[in-house]
Design goal:
single chain; about 80 residues; 3 strands
């Protein structure tokens, strides 16, 4: 399973989102810090789930990071999150 699929699987399992988009945006960062040949270094994630309702932005981000796990988060150079209920 590649990183994009792993992110999707873990977020679906943790939050049962109403909407989820995971985009590997690595190629647009070619030549920048953290770029790896083959991609899987820069991601944009949009997630909408009831689980985030009433949570602060920091709490939402912490919840996503916890669902992904420290080993996955540390292997990603950039993770842009668009989170909502």
């Amino acid at each position: 399973m590649n990183v994009t699929e792993t992110i999707r699987t873990r977020l679906e399992a943790a939050f049962s989102p109403d909407a989820l988009e995971v985009v590997d945006d690595s190629e647009s960062h070619r030549g920048h810090a953290g770029f790896r040949e083959g991609g899987e270094s820069h991601f944009n994630v949009m997630i909408r789930a009831e689980a985030f309702k009433g949570q602060s932005r920091i709490a939402q981000h912490r919840a996503v990071h916890a669902a992904l796990g420290p080993e996955l988060v540390s292997s990603i150079h950039a993770l842009s999150l668009d989170i909502g209920a």
